[in-house]
Amino acid sequence: MSEDILEQGEPIPGDERSLLIVDDDRPFLARLARAMEGRGFEVETAESVQEAVAKVKATAPAFAVVDMRLGDGNGLDVVQAIRDRRDDARTVILTGYGNIATAVTAVKLGAVDYLSKPADADDIYTALTRRPNERAEPPENPMSADRVRWEHIQRVYEMCDRNVSETARRLNMHRRTLQRILAKRAPR
């Protein structure tokens, strides 16, 4: 194994270095694939849920980095497909629309970490190779009040099975206001 891998964290376990990266942002996908190849992974890429699930069925990877929102569906479907084929796989979810409810779902499906975009290759590598009993470091900056509000809205939205009208009713909020909030990225 290369010194680069040993310096940045735990070496990739065994001979299994297969990594599937699933993201519909082509420039990001290409950059991350190059960065992970430089860290010793054998990288496969996919730009959709359908393509990713087909690759998982052909050969289940030891590692995966999966975007939450893809053009043809939810990245959690890819995590589930990986877990069904290989229960020792280490999967990290990436999202620009992070919220607690989907993070909990991702972990229940077997993801080892949940990172908000923009995440750099070092953060992703660390999450993939972290020992199972090793804890992630707490964030340097706690959530802002706007972020806490946004997280609450997302949690209620997930509890209502992503039904905008029902979520708006429960939050005592106008439906169009809620739609505008849901369309935006998470506040910092």
UniProtKB/TrEMBL annotation:
SMART domains: REC. The keyword Amino-acid biosynthesis does not apply. Residues 18-132 form the Response regulatory domain. NCBIfam families: ActR_PrrA_rreg. PROSITE patterns: RESPONSE_REGULATORY. The modification 4-aspartylphosphate is found at D67. Pfam families: Response_reg. Keywords: DNA-binding, Phosphoprotein, Transcription, Transcription regulation, Two-component regulatory system. This is Photosynthetic apparatus regulatory protein RegA. It comes from Nitratireductor thuwali.
